[in-house]
Every structure is written in C-alpha cells, then in structure tokens.
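User: I'm writing a tutorial on reading structure tokens. Could you give me a worked example: one chain, its sequence, then its tokens, then a sentence or two explaining what the tokens reveal?
Assistant: Sure. Here is the example chain.
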Amino acid sequence: MVREFYSNGKLLITGEYAILDGAKGLALPTKFGQFLTLHHSETDTIRWKSFDEKDTIWFSTEISKNNLENITSTDEEIAQRLVNILKEARRLNPAFLADNYLYNSIESKITFQRNWGLGTSSTLIANIATWANINPYKLLESTFGGSGYDIACATSNSPITYQRNGYEPIINEVAFKPSFINQLFFVYLNQKKNSRDAINSYKNLNFNKKDLISKINILTENIVLCDNLKGFELLLNEHEAILSNTLKIPTIKSRLFPDYSGTIKSLGAWGGDFVLATGTEAEMLYFKKKGFDTIVSYPEMIL
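And here are its predicted structure tokens:
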C-alpha cells in the first residue's frame, strides 16, 4: 500500500520582501518540485529517507512514532526541523500518525538541485500538510514562517498573484504567458540565500510600508498585463529601483553585471538563488563567461 503526494517549486517575480506585509506578488510554480511517498510498514518508528534529483540519499533519520523524537539521523539539525514539523502537524490534527496511520516508511525526493532555492522546505511543508489533512499556511507559520506564496505555488498549476490574508491568502490565477517568454532566462547566482535571515533584516528596516505596498501592487498588476519586452523591462527596472532604495542594497545588476545589455531582476531574497534576465540565448553567454553556468529558460522552468 503506497500513497504519494507532489508539490511544485516556486519563483517570485514581483513583491519580494513587500509580500510579507501584504503586497501583491506575481508568483510562478515551476516544473521542478518534490515528491513525498508513503510506504506501509508495521514498525513503531518512522523511517525517513530524502533523495536528491540524482536519486542519491542526502538525509535519513529514524523517529519514534509515539513521542516524535529523533532516534538516529545523518544530520541532527535537519532531523530536529523535521521532528518539529511533524509535531506541529500532529498538534493541528491529533489523529495524524496515530495508530490508524500505517505509513511509517517515508521517502521524499526533490527534482531540482537542493541549492537552487526553488522550495525544498515549502514543498515539504505542502506535502506533509496534505498528508496530515491540515491547513498548510498554519503549518508554515508555526515552523518556517514566511509569506506563504511558496505554499500557494506548491498546489497551483499556473501563474498566480498572491496576497497574505491570515491563513486564507488571496490567490488568483493569472494568464501570464507573454509573447516574449523565449527571451526570459533564470540565472543561478552560485549561492543559496537564507530566506529567514533576509526576512529578519527586512523586518528591522524603518520605512513607509503603505507606500511600498501601493507601488508594488501597481507594478505587479502592470507586469501581469504587459505583453511587450521593452515595457516589461522598464517595469522590472522600476521594481528593482524601489526595492534597492527600501533595502539600502545595490541592485544585483549594478553590483555584478553592470555592463549587461538586458534587464536583470532579483527573485526572492536579494543576493542569492536565481535572477531573471532578459535577452537572447546567445546573450546568455555573457553570464557563462562570468562563471554562472546554470541558466534555465522560462519554458524549461515554469509550468
């Protein structure tokens, strides 16, 4: 007896940081994601294995089923985070992992590289919430925190706009498929950014949040409707300038790619993971010459 769940990865095109305060963001579910497979096993422990995109085990643990405490693991810190998630899931649904739950052998598998920042944690949260039959936004809030847009992407199969609204966010599917998608590329910056650290830094800033939210909302709506590349680039550049001024951080283009001819926009926490670059496939050689070899086209990346 086997059950399987799957959640999509995510990329946030607009609204980074401001989405935490209720701004509307454009979010895209990716073709990459995470599976959670449950196998029947008559044991009193939970045996968990996590596989990467190459089917290599990168983490394993054994957890007591009764008190959900870690027994043995390959990484104590990761094991404790997993235990905390399972405990919160049980708190939200006391029947979760009770005697009538016969799935004790668990396998998770991501289909993207772990350092890409496409949602290793959020896809796990979404899968466990589905398994436990609980509100995923409540589980996220009591574990990792964050805006929740990544949870929305996990179960969406089209681009969405997202706004925080307690545990019932405002999510709308949008017809974002511009004619120039073949000129949109996602470039990996060769380092993963810690989202929690970025969120904490943002929360310590002092600025007019209502003004920022209003500007980001307008930009998001205009970007969704834009269907010409030049206009799209202008809107992205404006978004970068507004966030740069708010965060007091130079844009990624001015810092790393000042001589690039196209537009470059940070996605999510500034300084890591993927950026969005406009241009032709030939122009992507610019990034490769600078040592940024992971470049994924829009059609390859986005559902």
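What the tokens reveal: The chain has two domains: 2-173, 181-301. The longest strand covers residues 25-40.
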